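User: quick one - fold this with zinc ion bound?
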Amino acid sequence: MLNSTTAQPALAIDASILQTLDIAIDSDEVKPAERYEEPPGAVLVDVELLRPIFAVRVFTMIAVTVPPLALVAVMMLAWGGWFSWVDLTLLGSMYVITALGVTVGYHRLYTHKSFATRGPIAALFAICGSMSAQGPVIWWSAIHRAHHQHSDHEHDPHSPHAGRKPGFIGLLSGFAHAHAGWLFDNVPADFRRYVPDLLADRTTVRINNLFPYIVLFGLLLPGVIGGLITMTWMGALLGFLWGGVVRMFVLHHVTWSINSVCHIWGWREYASGDHSRNNPIFGILAFGEGWHNNHHAFPASARHGLRWWQLDGSWIVIRSLEIVGLAKKVRLPSTDRLAARRV
Ligand SMILES: [Zn+2]
Ligand SMILES: [Zn+2]
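Assistant: Sure. Structure tokens for the protein plus zinc ion:
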């Protein structure tokens, strides 16, 4: 257990990580002072609790293998006429909610601190992101900060290039590893090194530890809504399948494609020291995350689609929050920095 005497000093993020992530070391964005002053005895987090390795591996196995089977089931049901606008709406709305939880919440807010917002809104994004079943928020952020620090080099948790074997087989195995294979590699997440700021935030730790229940809630919610709208058990089952399991399947593969596809296929606009690419398909599907070369060049930017035509759904959300006063300290690269990094 961590307590006030054994805990790392607040904000003990390695300077090299801060530099990689482009997070200003002493800015308010990283250091909301009140959040790091926990009373003695009020344990911030039991780090061991964050790595129930076996449970995570079993969970990962289920989350990766069951949704494709569910997809086959819904296709057969749809073939038999069991599909309606209710199911389609539940799929679409749950996709948008959970995807934004990952892109705006997990990624741009928690991992990169590209903007600041009020506690309840931050918590809401973390909860929506958790429903995607991509791992607890602190684990996700630790892995992703490690990805940025070692992007496409030896210690990158999910590079399609690092250690790649030659030829077409090498390309395929690199792709499979970056896409979902790495999830089975038991990649250790160094929490104390990469995410001490998140470990020190009580609400974030709570949401992190409630992860399995939030995933379950995200699966049952569309089922309940589907059942109430249609007032049938079949409606509830279809809502669960389309809004819960199929939605999880689609978003999993869209998100994983950022790690696989967007480090292989697309074009490069900025020097980023890795193989990251801008890919318009995933720019759209992943709400802006597919402008991945832009993101690796300017990791702290709240906006990934840096040109007017690079559609970035997450940026539209952040900018809207800013306009109504709910997002502050929104970070964007200056025109000088943009010009300096252009290739
Ligand atoms: Zn990347
Ligand atoms: Zn990132």
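One thing worth noting: Residues 147, 151, 263, 276, 292, 296 surround zinc ion (ligand 1) (CB under 6 Å).
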